[in-house]
Design goal:
This protein is an alpha/beta fold. Helices cover about 35% and strands about 15% of the residues. The chain contains 9 helices and 11 strands.
Length: about 250
């Protein structure tokens, strides 16, 4: 029988996965990106950004595993780590079901951990999420200057759909298309959903661009992160939607 070497040192290049590992096995992480803000007070070596990690610093940490994501991290960086002999596990997450499967793969198959209770709690929370009396149509900007929105096959779009909100641009050819704001205003949406990341939309920065349209200000960590935040996400997102449309 072949035994897999124990994983004792992990570097995460994805904020969501950093939180997932830290919540499951404190002390396993030895490195994370500058953008890895959860859990608060995480004390690990910072290795740069998700798009510009310091490969030499990562290699010097001698990780047993680097965890990454095909959307958040660049293929040349991951290839560079592999060329240096660093094992890399790459996730792909386009919807909630895939997120749950990939979290299990990272934590259990990749890191050799027991399946965490928070992952079961998150699946239960999304098993029967709250939904409005009628389905709503929304535009979901993720950036301005230029304006960009959620398009096809996005994790955030899937979460909103499960909560009764359909993305107006879900059938767009691009996943994050740039759309002129005039077109967004004329798209026939019932509301605009404004997360606070990657662009930090606030009550004073975003809603004014959509006069007459209800604006739901949503925490980006609940809408776009896949990890322990998924447990509270259905209630938190639904509360923001209700506040905007009541």
């Amino acid at each position: 029988m072949t035994h897999r070497p124990a994983v004792r040192r992990v570097v995460s290049l994805v904020p969501s996965l950093t939180e997932a590992v830290a919540a499951t096995a404190p002390g396993l992480l030895v490195g994370a990106t500058d953008w890895c803000s959860h859990p608060p007070g995480l004390e690990v070596t910072r290795i740069g950004g998700t798009k510009n990690p310091d490969l030499a610093r990562i290699a010097a940490l001698a990780p047993d595993l680097v965890i990454a994501n095909e959307e958040e991290n660049r293929a040349p960086d991951l290839d560079g780590l592999r060329a240096a002999g660093v094992p890399v596990l790459v996730t792909e997450i386009r919807d909630l079901d895939q997120a749950f499967a990939e979290l299990h793969r990272v934590l259990v198959d990749g890191c050799g951990l027991e399946r965490p209770g928070w992952l079961d709690e998150a699946e239960a929370a999304w098993g029967a999420p709250p939904v409005p009396e009628r389905r709503l149509r929304a535009v979901v900007p993720i950036w301005r200057r230029p304006w960009m929105v959620l398009g096809r096959d996005t994790f955030a779009g899937d979460l909103l759909a499960r909560l009764g909100v359909d993305n107006v641009y879900a059938a767009h050819a691009d996943r994050y298309p740039p759309i002129p704001v005039e077109e967004l205003r004329a798209a026939g949406a019932d509301l605009v959903v404004l997360p606070d990341e990657p662009y930090a939309f606030t009550a004073d920065d975003g809603p004014e661009a959509f006069p007459g349209l209800p604006a739901a200000l949503v925490g980006g960590r609940h809408l776009t992160w896949y990890g322990p935040s998924l447990t509270a996400a259905p209630a938190a997102i639904s509360a923001a939607l209700r506040a905007a449309t009541r």
